[in-house]
Amino acid sequence: MIKQKQKQKMLRQSMAPYEKPNEKSSIVQLINTIVPFFALWFLAYQSLAISYVLTLAIGVVAAGFLVRIFIIFHDCCHNSFFKNRRYNKILGTITGVLTLFPYNQWAHSHSIHHATSGNLDKRGIGDLWILTVDEYLEAPRSRRIAYRLYRNPFVMFVIGPIYVFLITNRFNRKGAKRAERINTYITNVAIALIVTVGCLTLGWQSFLMVQGPIFLISGSLGVWLFYVQHQFEDSYFEADEEWEYVQAAVEGSSFYKLPKVLQWLTGNIGYHHVHHLSPRVPNYHLEAAHNNTEPLQNVPTITLRTSLESLRFHLWDEDQKKFVGFNHLKTFSREERQKRVAVYSRANVK
């Protein structure tokens, strides 16, 4: 155990050379991301006079750049895009307006996600809703129906982004401090101004015909990335007393091996195991950290094709230490179900 702890400590320390932001790289990334996004948005608007099919095609590419903008926002939330925390907050607030995320609020919930990812006893903040097999079997019918609806792909990747980005993100969490509340108000006002100006100058129909698809596609892609980065078959989940940060990072966060173009558009976030091992590594250093760190070469790896398998993973099986689908429940006899529920209930009473 001591030897394992030492290895984990050394692995975390090995990230130190990659944790320093490069101001030049950050500025270049800002230019090659923000400028093309607005240029594509303008082209999509101009294309309305030609063909809406062309508008949608341009919108798909623009959505990819909006995902890349979110990765910059994400780095700012970790204070890893610039050395100066104030610069990170300013840029994070601006990119948060573009991506519909309040900077302070999301930085808070996302930091909790990093501190508790893979911890069965600390789920619920900054995570997707995950139930274990026993929790699902023990749950009342209404909760099981709600969970199945939540896990439906249409709800997860279409309705989900609309609900979270447009509604949930507009309100402060309970207990939010003054600075966080003000930041949310500023973000909401800025979004309202942009939408108002866009609708008044371009016409509300034209504005929505361009922005609507870009928002929905980028939102769905963002939720998909978050989903596959932790929901693969042999992921990592442990009770609090057994949970290990480094192990959760390298075993519970996937290496999503994407084609180079998609890797670029998604800001290297496919190297999610590196990101969870050290959130201070800027996105443009993640690939180098992975390639130059031997222990990270043998982490769970998924591709575009194999990532689609994650759609059938709905429940965490604590006995088998892997994700399973709802169909897995059919393998249990009625007696087995009752036994598992009884064991689970007794354990929770204690």
UniProtKB/TrEMBL annotation:
InterPro entries, per database record: FA_desaturase_dom (IPR005804), Fatty_acid_desaturase (IPR012171)
GO molecular function terms noted in the UniProt entry: oxidoreductase activity, acting on paired donors, with oxidation of a pair of donors resulting in the reduction of molecular oxygen to two molecules of water
Membrane-crossing residue ranges in chain numbering: 27-44, 50-74, 86-103, 154-172, 184-204, 210-228
Residue span, Fatty acid desaturase domain: 55-294
Keyword Lipid metabolism applies: no
Gene Ontology BP term (one): lipid metabolic process
One Pfam family from the record: FA_desaturase
Domain of life: Bacteria
Coiled coil: none
Keywords: Membrane, Transmembrane, Transmembrane helix
GO cellular component: membrane
Protein name in the entry: Fatty acid desaturase
Lineage, top ranks: Bacteria, Bacillati, Bacillota, Bacilli, Bacillales
